[in-house]
Protein 1
Amino acid sequence: MGNVAYSGNENGTGSACSWQPVELETDQREWDWSGAEAHVWRAFFPAWWSQADRLAQNLSGRERERMQQFRNPVLAARYAIGRGLLRELLGKYLGVTALELQISTNAYGKPELVTAAGTTLYFNLAHTDDIVLYGLTGICSIGVDVESVEPGRISSLEARRILSDDEWDSWQELLDEEQNSLFYQTWVRKESVLKALGVGLSIEPDTFSVGFAPKPTVIRVQRARLCIRVLLLKESVKAAVALTDVKMPQIRCFTATALA
C-alpha cells in the first residue's frame, strides 16, 4: 500500500516535523495508516473559509444542530471546517465517505470512531485561533493540543494549577519571558497527555510532570506510559502530541490545503 509520507518529514528520532502540504480534494495516493507511526495534520481556518458550506455537508445530524447553535457566523464556519475536515480525513484513511463514519464519545467526552471489528483508527483534534490540529494513528490512543501564547505575564495562581511541585520550583527561577513561553509549552504537553489517556480532568495536571525541555519525552502517569513530542508551528503557538503505551514512534506532519 502507498504511504502519505513525504521526504522531509522527520525520522523516528528527528527534531522538528516538516509540514508537507496535501490537497485533499485532488490527492490520489493511498492513505496508509498501518505502519508504526503517527500522522499529525494541521489546517488554517482562513484557507478553508470558502469550503465551509461544503464541509458542513459532512457533519452528522447532531453536529449540524451544534453548528446551528452558534449565533456568530464565524464561529459556526470554524465548527463546520474543524469537524467537517476531520470527517473528510478519517474517511480518506478508512476508504469510506464522511457520512458513513460513526463517531461516539467515551465517558469523559473524548470522541472515538465506531469501526468494524479488528479495525481501530485512533484520532484526536484541537484548535486555537486560526489553526486546527488532528492526530491520527493505528498504533494506540493519541492526544493533540494546541494553544496560542497570550502576551503578558502568567499569573502564579494559573501556573500553580498546571505545574507539578518540581515544575513549579523550576518555573519560578525563570525570567518572565521564559515563564510565559515554557508555561504554554508545558500546558499543551499535559493536555495532550490527558487527551491521549481519554480521562479529561479526572487526573489533575499538577499531579504529574512533563518538564520544560522541548525534546521528546517519555513519562508515566499512574500506570500508563506515554511518549510526548512538541510540534513546531510558529512562535506564538505551542502544540504537542502524545501517544500511550508505545515506544517513540515516527511522526509525519501534513498541512491540509484546499483548492483555490
Protein 2
Amino acid sequence: MKILQLSDTHLRGDGLLSFQVADTVKAMNDAMNYFSKMEQQPDLYIVTGDLADNGNVAAYQKLREKLVQLPAPVYIVPGNHDDRLLFREIFPEMCPVKEDIHPYICYTIDDMPIRIIVVDTSIPHTHWGALSEPVADWLDRRVQEYPDKPTLVFTHHPPFITGMSMMDEGFENAERYARILQKHNNLKLCCGHMHCNISTVWHGIPVITSPPISMVMELDLKPGGGDRFFLTDPGYLLHHYCDGRVNTHTCIIPTDIAYSGPHPFAYLDADKK
C-alpha cells in the first residue's frame, strides 16, 4: 500500500504572486500534472493543510478541479490558513467527518492495510496548532480501537520544537497529545506546516513533516530564523507499507522553476488574498 502526502499548496484565488514572488498556481499545476502521470500510482492522496493561502473560495475551487482528476481517492486536512466550513462545503467527499466531532475536520479510514487517522489541529485566526479537548477525547477513543494495526496520523501542525524559532510558536495540549499517541504500538505522526522535511522522534513517537508544494523553508537555526523561503521544486512524501512497516520516502518533483531566494514570508497589506 502506498499513500502520497502533499502539503502546503497555499493557492491564491486572485492570480497574484504570493509574497510578491511565488506562483502557487503554477506550482500546484506542475505537481498535479506530475501526480497524474506517475507510473506507480498511490492508493490514496492526503493533503496536510494550507490548501489556500487564506481560506479563499476561488482558490479552493481551482484546487478541487485538479484534485478530482487524480487517479486515486483524495483526503484533506485543514491548516492554519484554511477554513473548516468551506472544507465541508467544497470538499465534502475528501473530508468524511461524522457529526460526533463536528465542526472539527477529524475522521478515520479503516478499510485498508494501514489505518489512517486525520486530526484537526487548527485554531481559527491563529498560526500555531492545538489539540482541543473535544479532538483529544475523540482521538483517544480512535487510537485505542485498533492498537496493533499499523497507523498513520495525519495533521497539519507538528507538536515538537523544530529549532526554527519563528515557526516554534508552541502547540497547545502537546503533553496530552503525546500520551494519547503513546497508547498505540505501531504509529507514525505525519505533518505539514513547516515547508520542509524534518524527521524526528517525539516522546517515543516517530514524526515526519512533508516538504511543500509551494515555497521551501530556509533552514535557519539562528534566533529569529524560520521566516524565509526559496523558490524551488515542489516535494512530497510517499508512505509505503512494506514488510510489516511503513517506509517514508521524501520525493522531489522536477520542474522548470528558476531557483531563487531566500525570500521573506511577509505579506504586504494589499497581498492578503
